[in-house]
Inverse folding.
């Protein structure tokens, strides 16, 4: 069996998967921006499921299974390459600076530091393979600790690996196995068609394979709209002075806000900060100062050791800080990302499980707990109209007899991002910035469109727009309004993405695509729209294209990988209401992506009608901005969108060709 597999990402996860698949007979190509600059090189290499107090459950199971694979896994790598990975089952000490409850005997300690409340005797084992050492025992076990240390946990199964040496050995192993490794490759987008990846657009051209693995760490979100964001960590290393003949530390120290990892080559690694600052590079004085203060407090001798190196890296972090592993929406794309601070630890098990899934078509039950769909689970929206009436008690006998049930709705999901509101608004045509601000608030919307060109040129009504809204609460939808060709639209979309980043939305890859060469009727160009959409999808954008209500074009755009389709109800700004109902119904019936009705709605009744058809959302600008009281109209549109959605979920009565009495004749009491 021979299969061509393309792995996106050259860190330890990507390399480990590549080696495992190649050993099983696959033909693997691996691409990465900079193998030497991968996040792997910024780690400390701790293997610490015990010391890090990973909660019981699937994550702990995953970590322990990987830890137990490490001895044999690294032995094979070292034997095959002749290079040392630095694997060392040195154990980890977790000293504590808390007061003893029973200080007289120095034998008991109430464990509150790690979230439990249990009294342990010295040397007693906890539930997670750790042993409690009292003050005397821990200072004997590791001389040189601060006098403030009154005890600590000893995790004999935990250890470390030299992450840089491991990456180097894996790279050597990969070359020896014949894996095709391409460095300096920047992935610009994934080409998809009908639920399958057909190629990867890169700075060196389009790369194709039979199967793809996304293992790009903190950069994964720039390739697919996954909830993976960078979490910066600053680190430094000290060097044991040559005047000290014996290494003072032979085990990792894991403190409350610091870890100290000794290497056999006399380096001592100190880490790490945890900063939600996007991809902001560089070390900072306050970050390094904090690490040094915490390390010296724990192990005072370090104050006299020379600093050898400073560096930083970006952890790939998901909202629940657990990895994303397994299948994706595309049948030939597998995900292996979001490992947060456990990428080195989880490399062996990730490689095994992913290879089993791809090569053996065998999915380990454990993978289900790390599937990307956990971020897309249905949840109830808080629609006020679904609450119980004020004069009705849900616990009454009437309610019990009637078995009344209340509607639940799923959240609006676009390109993996969820929104409570199904009403989007624009920012143009208002009489003032203040009126726009009030209307956005009154609408309850979470997405607003921003015409990129008008903001850049400070067009009337757009001065100060960037400062007018709270971009921490409002998601920007950059708009290519004013673009007459596909090429123009692609350029403006790129500018829009940068504009969103400047306003703090680093992971915003959304774009509302408009290609309109017709200045009189402002009807979108279907050919130019499709061309621009295909290019933008390749570049990793979540494309929301504005189109005529053309069911065939809508299907082509969906197949090209667009995040939504936005058919017009009537020409832009006309306020004519729904003039394309029949075609919008067809589009909604056949779509597998959200349908947003855009342009032409003039009244709340028309907004409700569009939602009653089954549209997922509305985009309304002119009807609000040009109303005599814009904020009031914005609130009316909000209520109409909610009302229409509820009506759609409730299901309308059948249309009859004749009258049917509301009160039935059968069962009537005859006089």
């Amino acid at each position: 069996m021979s299969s061509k597999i393309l792995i996106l990402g050259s860190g330890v996860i990507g390399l480990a998967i590549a080696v495992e698949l190649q050993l099983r007979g696959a033909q693997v190509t691996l691409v990465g921006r900079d193998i030497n600059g991968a996040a792997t090189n910024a780690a400390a290499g701790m293997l610490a499921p015990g010391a890090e107090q990973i909660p019981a459950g699937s994550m702990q199971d995953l970590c322990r299974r990987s830890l137990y694979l490490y001895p044999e896994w690294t032995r094979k790598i070292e034997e095959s390459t002749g290079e040392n990975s630095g694997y060392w089952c040195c154990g980890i000490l977790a000293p504590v600076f808390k007061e003893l409850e029973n200080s007289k005997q120095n034998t008991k300690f109430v464990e509150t530091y790690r979230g439990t409340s249990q009294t342990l005797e010295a040397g007693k084992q906890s539930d997670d393979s750790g042993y409690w050492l009292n003050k005397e025992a821990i200072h004997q076990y590791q001389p040189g600790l601060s006098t403030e240390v009154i005890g600590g946990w000893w995790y004999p199964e935990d250890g470390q690996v030299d992450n840089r040496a491991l990456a180097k050995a894996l790279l050597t192993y990969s070359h020896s196995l014949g894996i095709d490794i391409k460095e300096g490759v920047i992935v610009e987008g994934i080409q998809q068609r009908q639920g399958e990846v057909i190629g990867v657009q890169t700075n060196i051209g389009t790369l194709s394979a039979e199967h793809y693995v996304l293992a790009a760490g903190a950069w994964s979100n720039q390739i697919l709209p996954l909830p993976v964001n960078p979490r910066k960590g600053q680190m430094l290393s000290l060097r044991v002075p040559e005047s000290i003949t014996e290494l003072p530390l032979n085990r990792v120290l894991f403190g409350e806000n610091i870890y100290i990892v000794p290497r056999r080559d006399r380096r001592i690694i100190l880490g790490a900060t945890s900063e939600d600052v996007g991809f902001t590079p560089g070390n900072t004085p306050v970050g390094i100062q904090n690490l040094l203060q915490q390390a010296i407090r724990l192990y005072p001798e370090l104050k006299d050791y020379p600093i050898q190196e400073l560096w930083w890296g970006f952890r790939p972090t998901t909202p629940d800080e657990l990895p994303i592993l397994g299948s994706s929406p595309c049948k030939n794309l597998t995900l292996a990302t979001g490992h947060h601070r456990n990428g080195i630890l989880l490399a062996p098990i990730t490689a095994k499980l992913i290879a089993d899934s791809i090569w053996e078509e065998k999915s380990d039950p454990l993978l289900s707990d790390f599937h990307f769909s956990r971020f897309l689970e249905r949840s109830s929206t808080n629609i006020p109209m679904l609450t119980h009436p004020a004069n009705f008690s849900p616990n009454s006998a009437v309610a019990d007899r009637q078995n009344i049930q209340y509607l639940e709705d799923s959240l609006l999901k676009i390109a993996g991002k969820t929104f409570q509101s199904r009403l989007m608004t624009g920012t143009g045509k208002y009489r003032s910035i203040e009126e726009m601000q009030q209307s956005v608030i009154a609408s309850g919307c979470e997405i607003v469109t921003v015409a990129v060109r008008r903001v850049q040129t400070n067009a009337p009504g757009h001065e100060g727009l960037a400062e007018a809204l709270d971009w921490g609460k409002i998601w920007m939808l950059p708009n290519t309004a004013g673009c007459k060709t596909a090429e123009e639209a692609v350029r403006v979309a790129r500018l829009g993405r940068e504009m969103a980043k400047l306003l703090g939305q680093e992971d915003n890859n959304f774009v509302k695509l408009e290609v309109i060469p017709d200045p009189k009727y402002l009807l979108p160009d279907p050919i130019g729209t499709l061309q621009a959409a295909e290019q933008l999808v390749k570049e990793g954008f979540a494309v929301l294209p504005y189109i005529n209500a053309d069911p065939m074009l809508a299907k082509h755009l969906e197949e090209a990988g667009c995040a939504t389709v936005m058919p017009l109800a009537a020409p832009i700004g006309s306020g004519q209401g729904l003039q394309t109902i029949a075609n919008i119904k067809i589009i909604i019936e056949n779509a597998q992506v959200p349908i947003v009705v855009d342009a032409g709605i003039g009244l709340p009744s028309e907004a409700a009608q569009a939602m009653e058809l089954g549209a997922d959302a509305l985009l309304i600008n002119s009807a609000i901005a040009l109303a005599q009281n814009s904020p009031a109209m914005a609130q009316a549109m909000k209520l109409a969108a909610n009302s229409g959605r509820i009506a759609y979920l409730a299901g309308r009565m059948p249309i009859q060709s004749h009258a049917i009495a509301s009160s039935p004749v059968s069962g009537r009491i005859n006089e």
User: Anything to note?
Assistant: The two ends are 85 Å apart (CA to CA).
